[in-house]
Amino acid sequence: MSTATIPTRFAADFRAICGAEHVSEDPAQLQAWNILGVAPALAVTPASADEIAGILRFANEHGLSVVPAGGFTQQQVGNPPPQIDVVLFTARLTAVEHYDVGDLTVGIGAGCTVAQLSAMVAKDGLFFAGDPAQPERSTIGGLLATGLYGPLRHGYGGLRDYCIGVRFVTGDGRKAKGGGRVVKNVAGYDMMKLLIGSQGTLGIITSASFKLFPAPRQTRTFVAVFPSAAEALQFRSQVLRSPLDPICLELVSPQAHELLAPGSPAAAGWSICLRAAGSETVLARYRTELGTAVVREMEGANEQGFWRTLSDFSPLAAERHPRSLLISMTLPVRDVQSVLNEVSTVAESNHFLFAAIGRVGIAHLLVSLWPAPDAEDSLVSFVDTVSGLRNRVPRDASLAVLHCPSETRHHISAWGPMPTDLESMRAVKMALDPKDILNRGRFLF
Amino acid sequence: MPVNLPGLVEHLREIAGRDAVLDRPEDLMLYEYDAGIRKSTPGAVVFPQNTEQVSQIMRLATALNVAVVARGAGTGLSGGSIPQAGGLVIAFSRMNRILEVDVENQRATVRPGVVNLQLSEHVSHLGLYFAPDPSSQKACTIGGNVAENSGGPHTLMHGVTVNHVTGVEVVMPSGEIVHFGGKAAESYGYDLTGFMVGSEGTVGIVTAITVKLLRKPEKIATLLGVFESVDDAALTVSAITAAGITPAALEMLDGWTLRTVEAFCHAGYPLDAGAVLLIELEGLREAVEEQAIAVREVCLSQKAREVRRAKDDDERALLWKGRKMAFAALGRVTPSYYTQDGVVPRSQIPAVMRHIGNVAKKYDLTIGNIFHAGDGNLHPLILFDMRNAEQFERVLSASSEILEFCIQCGGSITGEHGVGLEKRDLMSRLFTEEDLDVMISLRNAFNGRDILNPQKIFPTPRMCREITGPSQNPVLMQEGL
Amino acid sequence: MAEKPVSNFSSGEKPTWDLYSKCVHCGLCLDQCPTYRALGTEMDSPRGRIYQMVLVDQGRLALADSFVTHIDRCLGCLNCQTACPSGVPYGSLLERARSQIEENYPRSWLQRKVRSHFYGTVLPSFGKLARHAKLVRFYQRSGLQGLARGSGLLKLLGVAELDALSPRIESDFSFADLGRVYPAEGAQRGRVALLIGCISSVAFAELNRATIRVLTRNGIEVHVPQSQSCCGALHLHAGYIEQSRTLARHNIDAMLKPEFDAIVTNAAGCGSTMKEYAALLEHDPQYAKRAQEFVVKVRDISEYLAQVGLVEPAHKLKARVTYQDPCHLAHAQGIRSAPRQLLKFIGAEVVESPRADSCCGSAGVYNVTQNEISMKILDEKMGYIASVEPEIVATANVGCMLQYAAGIKRKGMNARVVHVVELLDEAY
Ligand SMILES: Cc1cc2nc3c(=O)[nH]c(=O)nc-3n(C[C@H](O)[C@H](O)[C@H](O)COP(=O)(O)OP(=O)(O)OC[C@H]3O[C@@H](n4cnc5c(N)ncnc54)[C@H](O)[C@@H]3O)c2cc1C
Ligand code: SF4
Ligand code: SF4
Asked: Which residue in B73, B326, B337 is closest to C24 by CB distance?
């Protein structure tokens, strides 16, 4: 386990910026905040964008590496950092900038958790459409930086669709903003798009504004089960071609079903879980349209619980199978079937089992793979499984390894080839964080 | 930047073909305008037919340090395609093929010169359409839509252009051809596709675009709420949103505008109303019927005099015709109009409408209002006659006062038309020096020599007080007055 | 301040501020303009053409080659006028611009000679036209056609030999029909005067007969007034405004009679021009009022038949028909549903092609004078038509019929081109 020591020299400078009680040098605590085994030398918790700008300018002067941190739920994602000088927590950035119930918009500090935001707006019958795993810990800043989403992505769109403004500090310490608090706005470049999914490598998000939605008064989930993925996906295509307009449309593989609901009678097949919102009449129409394929309906707490668990698929899988791969893939819709076939082939040839879920309407798959009980658990088999998949995904797809056994880290790149030109991405990085201060070594460059 | 490099035109002809370059003054004068009010003549115009040609053109322009401005249909309202610095215009009117329609993925890949509505018509028989529907959709190009991140009435429900673009092919100033995104809804890596959309041609030249195609809804209900006053209508807008209904479109026309429009298209708008709301609901039949009832109730509770519902497609088309044609229909009563594009939080619509009324009185101008009320995106149209220089001054003052008010309400200076030349000086009211500095560093990351659409978006200090007196008024000068 | 600009138009009829200032250069017309779609240049768009008129009027552009080229390239199809929400009177602007060109722009000697002969001497006189037609027929029958090819002379005559484009001159002209009255069959429901047209009377005598048969079988008495003349459309569109006025007066004298319920034509171009007589003669103290009365009575054949209603046809037509709007019917007269209604009434399966109301590129003599652009426009149009796989392409104007016949040949399609009236004739 490596620990940087240089920044301790600078601890006083950081204390001067954000106050002594907000700078930590406690080794035990720092150890707890290790990222893939690398512990930070210093932790700071600034209170404002100005303080963050001060910290980052300082870091630029001295070439320190800074890791922005929210709820620490996704820090193990990405390549192992060579060294972490400073971990910067956004926990104190929780102010509500604006909350316009009538306008259905909210602007909130990056350190606020998703659960806090959701609870705040729920009181007014509104609804924040972000549904990442572990919402109690996941922060708004982290949500944006990782671009994460859950099943609601199908019906409500992604962050790029409903994040309408962002304030941030660039890697080189400039305070900046994009967008604003109105739902339609084309003044200036769309900075929201750059920051969403930037994995904390371009700037530190300090606050963001969002469109909210009216909370659905009633929802119901319909579950249809099929003997094969092919049949399930065919059903999905039927739904997509129909006039139905569900808010979630999720595929759950047999193993995934078992993983989500351990102990429950193993599902014999592949299920499509469709969640609809609307009045009784509307929901009755869903029932008619979906027909006899539906074997189960869920409502109320039961339903809530089901989707909550589904959102937590990633942490659940990693917990259940610590020695596993968790792979996230974005694809063109048509390729879901062939990619699932490839997953199955690659898993089989490496003696792995797999569980898959996915927003099959927009073609985002999450696949967990682990060595079969009787198989040899070797580094090579993990590496081969990933490279096997990477070689087989179609053009226009991108594939990230969100979790893998620690010893394989240095052999498996977290990020594979991407459809977007790498040199252009590098140009953006150079423009905002020329000294590579933020999340050095963890993302693309 | 005058193009006095004799080699340029010859080179361009070699690249794009002899009949694909304009350089005679009598032709170039036809590229000095768009649908806005600014004018400036380019040094040459080239009509590429493929990406390779665009790449060679860009390489040449960079080598010769010539400014380059892309042009779609020239329907922009912010001066985006005006070659303010002279230089070269790349016109996409001959690069207008629909390259691929991928039904299963619900994607189409098109060249930038494809006309917005043509794409929807092309895929209509498949039950699909391209959702962004600017009122200029009959003529504007998808390249232009991407550059401006255009919206339209139905973007209230479906989102603006950026929400429908998943991939782009871009030619950089260096001539390099790069790809961002693809057919997937999202992908890992920076979202440069999203960044490209709305960058107003200052970052790269877009040569192909992959867009989402949506399925046509099962049911559409179009309602017309008739109100005695703009205030009542404006309050209804927030009330509808507050009732948890997201209409597909929610448009407002004020009394003066609807009378003017009615004279042209006989859409059946009541002539004595203070304002009307055009409300469209779409989706599953059952859901639409329920919402239609709810919307009617909300309207009536907000003092609507009457709520009508289109009986069939013809009636619906007629109601929309009035809306879609409204901008230009004002051309019937005025030689020119100046369109503003401010945005306010929806709840501020009543306040801003009152403000606009006061501004009109203060400057003795006629201002029509027809706008995307559901988004809070205003389009005050200020009427003028360019022969009257003094009046034009009042127009400019009135429009900055309106935009100033939008900013004070927490809004923005443009919701869909872009900053371009029109609003660049207001950018510093919305953004700090440092905000703008960050954006400029991003522009420079791609377009470091500022040859792509120079003098757009960002305030240029020496241009700040460009419009001061009649003698310096570019519009009037160009009109020869 | 710049000096007060000096217009490069001469006094007299010219595009004026009142007319062109209605154009707010919004560009909404661009994609509706066939020449813009074919060429992609602003100069060849409606907005650009109007702007060029502005530039000439403001003294920034010479009334010279460039201006003339782009105005010449205009089809006059008025697709832009339909598209324009600002109500720009493009038709009048164009006529005025063309009249300015005729007045002030020296064309080459040959062009001038041929144009003035054709517009000044041939067209107004049916007798001469007949002789010309006979001459052309003689050309077609003798092997001389090949010789004439490429000479340019016949092209400019508009009844040229551009193979598929040239009308087949039928052996019996309707001139023989002049002055005749055709009684209604069955109960009489109306009485009309029929304009037999100039080009069409030569080239499509059979069409005129069919028109008469359809009318009479539907209970309409048809008069073919003796002293009618060419409607003046070609003159008007080419910039010979005065000559078109003379022809208008002539036709008013010949056909404005109280006993006629309507003045009917089967040529969309003639109908739209006759409907313009009131505007044309607005300042003629003697004719202004009568011109208004005349206009009220002018009907396109489909408009008239849809108005009076068809009787039950003898045969139902069982065919897949696509109807292509002639510009002078859809854009100039706003008649779109009548022909479709009639086709459906006689049993046709009417399939709509994309851009059915976009110009085919025929536009009078355009397909001859601007052949290359015309063919580009035609090819685009044929692509749309082919996409709906029709058995029959129906339209309502002879110029368009010739153009579509050429298009079908070029595309190697297998479809018949007809006038709506011909299909009606088959049904009755
Ligand atoms: C009557 C009327 C109604 C309108 N209604 C709406 C509306 O409802 N909503 C709305 O959003 N807008 C509206 N507009 C504005 C305008 O139509 C849109 O901005 C449209 O997207 C412009 O498209 P265009 O093809 O005309 O682009 P242009 O005006 O030619 O260009 C616009 C910008 O795009 C850039 N550009 C064009 N092509 C490319 C390319 N290939 N690569 C890079 N940059 C490029 C240009 O440089 C310029 O900056 C309206 C305009 C009019 C006249
Ligand atoms: S002619 Fe009409 S549609 Fe065309 S640019 Fe002018 S105002 Fe717009
Ligand atoms: S009349 Fe036809 S060809 Fe001429 S400008 Fe209008 S649309 Fe174009």
From this structure: B337
Given a contact cutoff of 8 angstroms between Cβ atoms, the answer to whether C202 and C242 are in contact is: no
- Mean pLDDT per segment of 10 residues, for chain C of length 428 residues? 73 91 93 96 98 96 96 93 90 93 81 64 53 46 34 40 45 64 91 79 75 94 87 81 90 92 91 92 93 94 94 88 95 94 94 94 79 92 95 91 91 92 91
Among B200, B236, B412, B380, smallest CA distance to A105 is for B412
> B156 to chain C, minimum CA–CA distance in Å?
23
Give dist(CA B82, CA B69) in Å, integer.
7
Contact B379, B367 (CB under 8 A): no
Q: Do A180 and B184 make contact, defined as CB atoms within 8 angstroms? A: no
Is CATH 3.40.50.1860 what the domain over C314-427 is classified as, yes or no? yes
Tokens 């369109």 found at: B339
Q: How confident is the model at residue B469 (pLDDT cuts 50, 70, 90)?
A: very low
Give every CB contact of residue B19 below 8 A, 6+ residues apart in sequence: none
Say if CB B378 and CB B342 are below 8 A apart: yes
Q: Which of B21, B90, B93, B118 to mutate to test the interface with C (most CBs of C within 10 A)?
A: B93
User: What dotted CATH number matches A219-307?
Assistant: 3.30.70.2190
Name which of A189, A330, A364, A390 to mutate to probe chain B: the one with the most chain B Cβ atoms within 10 A of its Cβ. Answer: A189
d(CA A69, CA A84): 12
Cα–Cα distances (Å) from A315 to A281, A379, B120, in that order, read: 37, 22, 43
Ligand 2: distance of its center to the CA of A300 in Å? 57
Dihedral sign of CA atoms B329, B332, B338, B342 in order: negative
What is the DSSP pairing of strand B205-212 with strand B107-110? antiparallel
The answer to whether A144 and B398 have CB atoms below 8 angstroms apart is no
Number of A to B CB contacts under 8 A, please give it.
Answer: 275
**Looking at domain B334-408, which of 3.10.180.10, 3.40.30.10, 3.30.70.2740, 3.60.15.10 is its CATH number?**
3.30.70.2740
Closest of B344, B303, B319 to residue B253, by C-alpha? B319
Both tokens of A231, joined, read 């049949």
Q: How many Cα atoms within 13 Å fall on the side-chain side of residue B270?
A: 18
User: What CATH architecture applies to the domain A96-214?
Assistant: 2-Layer Sandwich (3.30)
What pLDDT, in 10s, does the model give residues B138-162? Answer: 999 999 999 999 999 999 999 999 9
The bound ligand whose nearest atom lies closest to the alpha carbon of B452 is 1
Alpha-carbon C19 to chain mean position: 23
Contact B152, B159 (CB under 8 A): no
pLDDT digits (tens, 9 = 90+) for A120-158: 999 999 999 999 999 999 999 999 999 999 999 999 999
At residue B261, the pLDDT reads 87
**How many CB atoms sit inside 10 A of residue C283's CB?**
9
Q: Does chain A reach chain C with at least 3 CB pairs under 8 Å? A: no
Closest CA to C331 of C62, C49, C83: C83
Chain B within 8 Å of C170 (Cβ-Cβ)? no
pLDDT at residue B461 above 70? no
Long-range Cβ contact pairs of B2-6 (< 8 A, separation 24 or more):
B2/B43, B2/B86, B3/B42, B3/B43, B3/B44, B3/B66, B3/B86, B3/B87, B3/B88, B4/B43, B5/B64, B5/B66
Please report the atom of ligand 3 found closest to the CA of residue C33: 7
Among C19, C21, C23, say which to mutate for ligand 2: greatest number of ligand atoms within 8 Å of CB.
Answer: C23
pTM score above 0.95: no
Answer yes or no: CATH 3.40.50.620 is held by domain A314-408: no
**Could you say which of C27, C84, C85 has the minimum Cβ distance to residue B35?**
C27
